[in-house]
Amino acid sequence: MSNVFRRHLLASTLLVGAAAVAAPAFAQATPTATAPADANSVAPAATGTQDAAAAPASVAGDTGAIIVTGSLIKNPNLKSAAPVQVVGRDELQLRQTNTAEELLRTLPGAVPSIGSAVNNGNGGASFVDLRGLGTQRNLVLLDGQRITPADITGATDLNNIPLALVDHVELLTGGAATTYGADAVSGVVNFITRSDFTGIEVNSSEQITGQGDGNTFRTDVTIGGNFDEGKGNAVFSIGYQKADPVTQGDRSFSKVSVESYTGGAGGSGTSIPSRFSRPGSTVQQINTTTGALVPTYQLFNYNPYNLFQTPFKRFNMFGEAHYDASDHVTFYTRGMFSKNTVGTILAPGGAFGAPDTINYNNPYLPAAAAQQFCASNGLSVATCNAAIAATGPTDPNYKTFNTTVSRRTPELGNRVSNDTTTLFDYKAGVKFNIIDSLSLDIGGNYGQSENNQVTTGNLRTSRLKDASLASLVNGVATCNSGAAGCVPVDLFGPEGSITADQAAYLAGPTEVTEKTSLVQAHALLSGDFGVSSPFANSPISFAVGAEYRKYTASQVSDVLSQQAGEISGSGGAAPNIKGAYEVTEGYGELDAPLVNDKPFFHSLSAQGGIRYSHYKIDSAGSPTFNTTTYKGAGTWEPVQGVLLRGNYQHAVRAPSIDELFSPVVTSLTNLASDPCASVQQNGTAIPGTASPSGALRDVCLAQGATAATVNLITNDPGGQINATGGGNINLKPEKSNSITAGIVLTPSQILPGFSFSADYFHIKIDHAITSPTPGDAIAACFGGASTANGGAGLPDGAATSAACTSIHRDPVTGDLSGDSATVQGIPLTLSNLGTLKTDGIDVTANYRRDLGFAKLNLSFDGTWTHSNKFQATPTSVNRECVGYYSVNCLNSGSPQPEFVWNTRATLTVQSVDFSVLWRHLSKMKQEPLDVIADGAAFDGTNATGQSFDARKIKAFNYFDLAARTVVGDHLELTFTVQNFLNKKPPIVGTDIGSTLFNSGNTFPSLYDALGRRFEVGAQVKF
Questions:
Q1: What whole-number distance in Å separates Cα of residue 163 and Cα of residue 845?
Q2: Among residues 379, 310, 363, which one has the least CA distance to residue 479?
């Protein structure tokens, strides 16, 4: 942690600590099972989610003003024209949610993003993805204010949200850029805290799976109270959480990697013993008994090492206070600190097709393999024998050969990454109540975030090359280079042949640090004009203001991480990055009640808003951006209890620091089949197919394959190939138009306790900042051509087209995978050429009834997504991804079911709650275009005895049970069983989706891979 960070932490701790100490007396609270946690709770959302228009207005912020997420106007009579879903504190307690990401990924309207179930690709943070439009297109707010972003993408880490002090969560899943600025294209998630908390509250919980693993412990202590005769309030909370890992080897369905398209035992072609390439042959494996290279090989099963639940530790502090200095002046402040550690574990690394040079007299090279390398490289028997007998590099008979090496290195241990994130965020301000109907709020925020990732178990390719050239000197294997510390490596033996001193020389621990900061300042004048419509009894309200924000972000990597291909299997270099931009904005909103209490017009109102933004990019020669966002909305109640509403928003999202400044690098992406491939992963020819010929062969050669390798190209066994992409300083803001229209019913006279809302949403993003999918890049060159169909469908002139020549193959093997320093793979360039579009319907219903002997609460929250289309360029496929999964449905990453709902039923008998939550995910299937490109996925019984159909996933239903009771005056106990029926996830194999979300033969972020879990929680209040 930097000294600056320490100073900020000390300052924030002193501030919030002093505020809490200033309140020596605390009001005593008597908890009940159904009562709100405090005066600011939203009781109608106690058993589920609901629409804000059907609930009391949210009480939030530092001054107790009544606000509605999606508007800057503070008005107790304001009815939201945009659908705002509310998740109450009671729902959080019944679920016993440990992190915000756990909650949000299960809510309709959101698609699972990176979180605790993502292992390969988890950078130590958790995100939310509203509507499946990407984490960069929504905002996460805390009491209506932005939080310092987690990384250079600008996304907010949900691990930092202080759940102990969260009163409720509001989700506005529609455009909100006019209200909150850029990034709120798909909506906002607003966590509202308990700003007037009084008393002492201790919460502790313990969770464990039915198999006795995955233990999660969490405890929080909150203290708060009023001071100076109620003029002020201060609250301070401190928390700790620890979650243990769960490996894929701990579950029967994921112990062995399964290929999605063949049903066979899958895995990686980088295995043990080593595999080598040689001219005129497929990549072959060394037989450690005979010393010869053989075509067949055993895939490496990486599943048991990977994680279904990443280990997690969190220490956090949060404090806030407000003080009424007079009737007209209120000061407020907030400070938060969080330190999170997230661990990921990948299977042992190794040389993943690393280019290498080996000498024929290498002391570890078996004679049989040496003779095969000689023959492949055209050496005569006499020349070969002389080269094998050479004494060293100075011997005139000394010779070497070039090859690629694929070998796992368990001797170096697993690849373990520990991400430690430290966040500090502080805000302060003052509110002036100028008159009863006019107030001015002036405030500012400053925060920093630092993520430090340390990874061990890596193999350095430069050291591998150095150690591969060795000769016997006085009977001792010695590196030919004479480099200090060099230890010759044995690449030709079984597991364990790499000794401890060899492993120590090859190992390359890495360290990458990302730092971000956010400065904010705002001034907001809000109130009413004192005049109203002739037909209305409420005045016209307004809000006008100005805002300034400055983002900075950097990535600093060690020397090894910056070198392309130096860390084998790392997926590409991690270059240093630094960027910043400033935003200056002016904005205004208007709410005009038009008619009140007239026939067929119980109420009619119109709202509007506009925001002008000026972006200044911190880069020489970079253009500035001037953007305008605006909205128009209205509500109409023909009669009391029936509300019709509509909302139109024009939003703009500026490119992030990552999208602007990240250098172009070669990393990994997913592709199941290469059109040039003519052999299977194990070296056996595919029945009924031929090698590339004619125009298809010309294309494969134009991309870097040679005449000697063009007939030997293989599909990568792990379904991962190289791809080249990065930032683009010439990017412009993307534009979005969104529409929502719906109805809210609260028929209190006819059906007391019932509320219902249904809203249609439509969001379209033009000039979207996107890159092509792997399927797009392949289709642009090959069309539908492959060796399986004889190259039919190949576009005319493909061999010289830019779409084909921009694809670069391994010059040694002809594959699209290999050393990232020499194999660029497919181009995935960022541009403003994309289009995104999604639409659907949200439905929410709540019902409460007093049965006499008990109280019944029912809630339903569902989303039907009609479509979610993504087109990367005008010539790309306009791809539909709702209800489908494939490696090309990458915009949202995790699969997006067509229909998702949560429904909860809670029965309260005296002081005991009995509750059941039913979560439904509709059926899904393999993307039709993926079937065309890669063939239908497997259906049957695979090599491991599992029976599954990877072509489709049936509808899934999960049931969670909870019971909550009050013991005495101060203790509340909650018992929860998640996935009560212990439903196992669907099996689809490991190469039918993206690596981030297709893991352990399933999609663990969407479907529960842990199984039944038990959790007990205790809350003590004074």
A1: 25
A2: 363
Q: Which of 756, 1021, 1022 is nearest to 203 (CA)?
A: 1021
Q: Are strands 187-193 and 166-172 parallel, antiparallel or unpaired?
A: antiparallel
Instruction: List the end-to-end C-alpha distance of the chain, in Å, as a whole number.
Output: 36
- Cis peptide, bond prior to residue 273, ω within 30 of zero: yes
Q: Are residues 937 and 864 in the same domain?
A: yes
Residues 54-82, mean pLDDT to the nearest whole number: 54
Q: Does one domain contain both 613 and 667?
A: no
Question: Could you give the CA distance from residue 985 to residue 1011 in angstroms, rounded to a whole number?
Answer: 8
Residue owning tokens 């106990």: 973
Range of the domain at 792: 656-727+773-827
Angle between helices 774-782 and 694-702 in degrees, nearest 10: 130
- Do 669 and 520 have their domain in common? no
| Distance, CA of 1022 to CA of 29 (rounded, Å) | 6
- For the chain, the domain total comes to 3
At 850, list the tokens. Answer: 């007093």
Phi, psi angles (nearest 5°) of residue 999: -145, 145
Tell me: the pLDDT tens digits for 940-978? 887 677 788 999 999 999 999 999 999 999 999 999 999
- Residue 18, pLDDT > 50, answer no
Place of tokens 């190259």: 791
Q: Which two tokens stand for residue 89?
A: 């504190």
Query: Within this chain, do residues 279 and 237 fall inside the same structural domain, yes or no?
Result: no
For 514, the token pair is 């990302």
Instruction: Please report where in the chains the tokens 């412990």 appear, as a residue.
Output: 217
Q: Which residues pair with 531 in a beta bridge?
A: none
C-alpha count within 13 angstroms, C-beta hemisphere, residue 74: 22
Candidate from 111-115, 875-879, 941-945 with smallest mean pLDDT: 941-945
40 and 29 within one domain: yes
> Which DSSP letter does residue 137 get?
G
Cα–Cα distances in angstroms (integers) from residue 491 to residues 67, 301, 350, 498, 664, in the given order: 66, 20, 11, 7, 33
User: What's the CA gap between 98 and 162, in Å, rounded?
Assistant: 10
Report the distance separating Cα 358 and Cα 467, nearest Å: 9
